[in-house]
Amino acid sequence: MREIIYWILCAFLTVAMAIVSLRYVTNFWLLSFLYSFQVHFGVLFVIASFIILAVRRRIYGFVLLFASLLLITHGVIMQREFSEDDRGADRPPLFRLMSFNVAIDNWKNSTAITDMVIASNADVVNLLEAKPLTFHLQQLFKAYPYHIGCDNGKDSCDTLVLSKRPFVSRQVASMGSLRKDRLVIASVEFDGETINLVSAHLTKPYFDDFQMAELEDLGKALGSIDGPLVLAGDFNSAAIAPSIQGFLREQKLKTIVPEPATWPVGAGLLGIAIDHIFARAPLHLTSLKRLDDNLGSNHSGLIAEFVLDKDGETSPAR
């Protein structure tokens, strides 16, 4: 009986590992969200391997254990690929940016979110699914005199970018064909340096190939931008998802690793980072933290600080 149980468990674990490992063969959209959980699945596979070995100590059980450890190890290595160095970490920041997916039905917490944004001391705030803040816009605009988005009532209030400084340039565009106006490209001047700010809200990766088309459009937009750049928003995928990996490599974007987990909020530190803030040299992240309270959203927000390199020297604070 133990022999039968052993091989049944081995068969189930082998199939599960094969599905997760399909990322090394193909980036099939229906499974793409699973790839964001590779490290988590690897841990579960290790536990399952020990259970199998408790039933029978056979060589195949050890093979499964080794393969599980490889999945975890490679997941960690993939995360480190996009890790920002410690450059300028001991210097005051050039500017501070907050990014937060409010959640489109989060009306009851709109006042608390508004107060949190104003109290954040962020120079730039990137708010997604900002519709619940419709009735607090004037309060926000008083603290942040310059904004992009939410100009035509609540039905058009999705992405809202707030700034304490005037925008040098501004553009609202769309990515892919599923949703409109979820790409904002702007620039703001800090200490005489123009910083390019990009906000993006991608579709869930298991919605057919829509996210891939959005990443292609986003890549074209970023490819046309010269100079220091920050990209913030809700990607609905972790940085180790194959499509996101390819995008980050192509655009030479970095972040601070490990990224704070932002979803699901109930999982806390055991969740994954699907909301991101990336920087491209000569701009560098020096701090990336999760907001203390998700305030009713199904995402946790992020706040980051940046420094700028000038010919190898980090710029001073403003």
Quaternary organisation: single chain
Give the termini distance in whole angstroms.
71 Å
Helical proportion?
Answer: 25-40%
Q: Report the CATH superfamily of the largest domain.
A: Endonuclease/exonuclease/phosphatase
Radius of gyration: 22 Å
> Tally of extended strands?
12
Provide the structure class.
alpha+beta
What is the annotated CATH architecture of the largest domain?
4-Layer Sandwich
- SS element count, helices: 8
When the domains are counted, the total is 2
Q: What is the 3D shape?
A: elongated
Low-confidence stretches: 312-318
Q: Would you state the CATH class of the largest domain?
A: Alpha Beta
pLDDT average, as an integer? Answer: 93
Order of helices and strands: HHHHEHEHEEEEEHEHEEEE
Which fold name is given in CATH as the topology of the largest domain?
Answer: Deoxyribonuclease I, Chain A
Strand proportion, as a percent range, falls in 25-35%
GO molecular function: endonuclease activity
Transmembrane segments: 6-26, 33-53, 59-77
Keywords: Endonuclease, Hydrolase, Membrane, Nuclease, Transmembrane, Transmembrane helix
Domain Endonuclease/exonuclease/phosphatase: 98-299
